[in-house]
Structure formats: structure tokens, C-alpha cells
Amino acid sequence: MKSILTGRDALKTVVDNIAEVAGYLWQNGWAERNGGNITVNITELIDEEIRHLPAIAARKPIGVTLTALRGGYFFCKGTGKRMRDLARQPMQNGAVIRITDDCAHYEIIADNTIMPTSELPSHLMVHNRLIEQGSPYRATLHTHPTELIAMTHHRPFLEKDVLTQLLWSMIPETKAFCPLGLGIVPYTLAGSVQLANATLSQLEEYDVVMWEKHGVFAKGLDIMDAFDQVDVLSKSAKIYINGCAMGFRPEGMSVEQMSEMTRAFNLPK
Ligand SMILES: [Zn+2]
């Protein structure tokens, strides 16, 4: 069967980027087994021919009604699929889905009947909110960055913006390239509606949200942007942990040095 990507360079580039990031997640040790999810809104790249493609599997309920997603198309990692496999064969480990007109169901249209991630409802809830806000963001990412998760096992780091200030102070790039900082969601059962709602709430203020003792959830303009923000935060976490491993608590940039950056680079915080 011909792939939906054949002859569609822009769509193929988006899927290639997803595969590239999936490889980075695996190489970084952030994606053990089937850990992590990627969902990207590809609606802008959908042509008339794709709109008329029949579903290749029975429609499924999303579990919520998301009215901003009517007629939307998404690439989603498959449930139980591994990031390391998605990196090599994205269309065998992920699928393109269409949101049906009732905004409460989805159907798989290409290339294979790969059922989407079990976290699809929470990812789609975030995309629904982004569209309502007129946001240019198209990608959501969930992954398990070891050092950042380790830091959430220390209760004082879970207070609002304590981790943000600490991570920003480790290296200037982190403040520059993750300029909204890191939100915190207290420990909540994976896959629950409570976790999805708490994530939505934190994403009003931050691009990257830490799920206590679990992982990060990030949104970005595209999947590279979402990955880069998590990557710079992870770099800072590694610097902090390296300092601690050498027997000292890293000094960090001063409050004045960070304010100087905010002014010099016109940062939001
Ligand atoms: Zn997870």
C-alpha cells in the first residue's frame, strides 16, 4: 500500500522530525520500553485527497468532546510502541488520525491500523486548548528525562518556581531557550482525567510541565521545539547533579545576572 507520505514533502518532513526526536528520546535514556508519547497536529498539511480517504479501522471514542478539533488531523505514536522503533519506522509505530465531525471520536486513516497512545485524550485536550487560544503550537511531547524526574523526589523542589530558578541559574541557555520555566504537577495517577486537567492548568503558564515522580509534558511550535525545551532543562539538571556528585552545591548564576539576561534578551520572566 502506498504511504500517505508519498509525494507530500511537507508532511513527510513533519513525520521525519518526529522520528528524529523519537531517536533522541531513546538515545538520551528518556524512553525505556514504550515510555513517552508524541502527538502532532498536522491539519494544515492535509489536502483534499486525504480528506476523502476512508477510515481503515472502526471509529473510536476519544472519551471527551473537543469541539475545537472538528476536522483535525494528528500524527500519534501507537499504544505500546517503542520510541526506538518509531525512530526507524514512524508509519509502522504511529498513525494518522482524523477527528470526526461530532468531535468525540477519531478514526485512523493511514498508513496502518496502529491504535494511538492510551494518553491520546490528554494530548488531544491540550491541542484543543491550543486551538481555542489561537496558538501556533502544533506539538505535544511526554517523556521520562531521568535527571529531571530525580529532582522531583526532593520535596522542596516542588514549590512553585523553585526548580525553574535553580535550573535557569545553571547555564544561561536554559533561561533563554525555556523562557517560561518549568511548571509542577503534584503526583497524580498516569492516564487520569485529574492529571490531564492539572497539566492543562499548568500549561497556561508554562511550555514544559513536570509530573512529579513520572516525567515531563511539553508543548512546542513543532516537535523539535518541544524537545529542545526539555533538552535544555535536562542539561541544567545534569550540571546541578554533577556539582552535587563532586561534593558541592553549585553556586548558580546570581539573581542580578539572571535579571540582566531578562533585560538583554527581552525575556518574558
Ligand atoms: Zn510516562
From TrEMBL:
GO terms for molecular function: aldehyde-lyase activity; metal ion binding. Residues 16-241 form the Class II aldolase/adducin N-terminal domain. It comes from the Bacteria. One of its GO terms (cellular component) is cytosol. It holds the Pfam family Aldolase_II. One of its GO terms (biological process) is pentose catabolic process. Keywords: Lyase, Metal-binding. This is Putative rhamnulose-1-phosphate aldolase.
